[in-house]
Amino acid sequence: MIATPRFIRICKGDLDGFFGLFVDNLLQLLLIFTLCPLLCGIGADVVMAKILPGAALSILAGNLFFAWQAWQVARREGRDDVTAMPYGINTVSLFAFIVFIMAPIYRQTQDAVLAWKAGLFACFISGVMELAGAFIGDALRRHAPRAAMLSSLAGIAITFIAMGFVFQIFATPALGLLPMLLILVCYAARLKLPLGLPAGFVAVVVGTLLAWALRAAGLAPAASPAEIAPAAFHPPHWAGGSLFGFLVSKVGWSYMAVIVPMGLFNIIGSLQCLESAEAAGDRFPTRPSLLANGVGSIVAACLGSPFATTLYIGHPGWKAMGARWSYSWLNGAAICAIALFGIVGQVLRVVPLEVTLGILLWIGLVITAQAFQASPQPHALAVAAGLIPALAAWLLVQIETALRVAGTDLASTADRFAPNLHIHGVIALSQGFLITSIIYGAVMVFVIDHKFKHAAAWLLAAAVFSAIGLIHAYKLTPGGVENHFAWFTAAPDFAIAYAAGAIMLWALGVSQTKS
User: Fold this and answer.
1) Number of other CB atoms surrounding residue 102 within 10 Å
2) What mean pLDDT do residues 376-382 have?
3) CA 168 to CA 357: how far, in whole Å?
4) Could you tell me if 302 and 245 are in contact, meaning their C-beta atoms sit under 8 angstroms apart?
5) Angle, alpha carbons 175-329-26 (nearest 5°)
6) How far is it, in rounded angstroms, from Cα 121 to Cα 115?
């Protein structure tokens, strides 16, 4: 046992963890600052005055809660190595709410205020779903095998977190490659730097100095003026009137096909994060964690932010860095200050984004490795199976992005992909990919363990989810891929195939029992 740890206690690992989580949260603010004016007609001044302050306070409140939660676990268990859960704006739902809700409404109506209100509605409903999920989360964690929960998380880590940033680093190797190598070498080899300096901090400083020198010599691209906005204090504003008035509008409810999957995504993703943390040695209670998620999203919506907050993947990465709980509240305070004072662009003017991305790459690699290391060795095949749906989802995002850049859309070009790429298969596998990933992983675990009746139950769930549209079902429209919900007719071909597979597995289980 150790002496009772202090809440205000900053260790070297907290500084490393702070840099990583700060960069991740800063990226979300930059996406909001860039995409809302571009796609939704919401001016940069409105983003800074109405959206970012609400996002900032929800991020601060959540980080304070999860820092306190980790500190409480440390006190109760007599440990000083507890790492707080990382927390911030959910990247996937951010894109989904902008691209599939706010942007289409703006294109149809040219009303940026209406688009903003629809985003508030989506964020609020997502928060309510997270509150409800807090009461069923423990049951899901008890019945889902660890390999199934961690493999779907690893799929997100190696695709949506690692790959995009790898491409950005290699697009500007003069700025990003050396910091990335420093981070990977120092963390993988667990090197101790002179004076006990944190590796993440050293990498960012070295990368920043190198970037300044290269830019001064004309050997690296200069910082974009578009990233710079005038600084000013923007206090949060109550947006509840706009939000609650919109609850009786048919406009928001017509987008439930997007909102419901994103709410489920947040719930399942949070459960996966908690399972990942437990595998790394820190067990946190499910219900308070999901309740905090839901409250954070609801607070964000009421204060003007259309973007839900959630637990982040990456806890094992922060823990491997030596981060404890102070990195969390440090991040919340820094992000809140940057958003409230409108200095997002000024930060990037000093510290190029490319020099920080190696930290996020490390997080993606650690999460992927953990899925294999923390699962029983025979279940490695199940982990590999669970990666596949996330790969499809990531590929679909890349295809849609490329088509938009080319001035076209997936609906008008889908049939041209055959026979080189079965694009409809990519879309079907990507729909509800988190749920599908867990199911595939669970089925493989129980098949490997010869628990065929358990595997049949999971495959039967896949049949039901396909039939009602939670997985595989979609509509291809000029606005993009949309979810398709229906009563047992959403994706009947998948439902029939899964049901037949469930019957086969059940028969195997019965024959096994008799023998």
Assistant:
1) 28
2) 94
3) 8
4) no
5) 30
6) 10
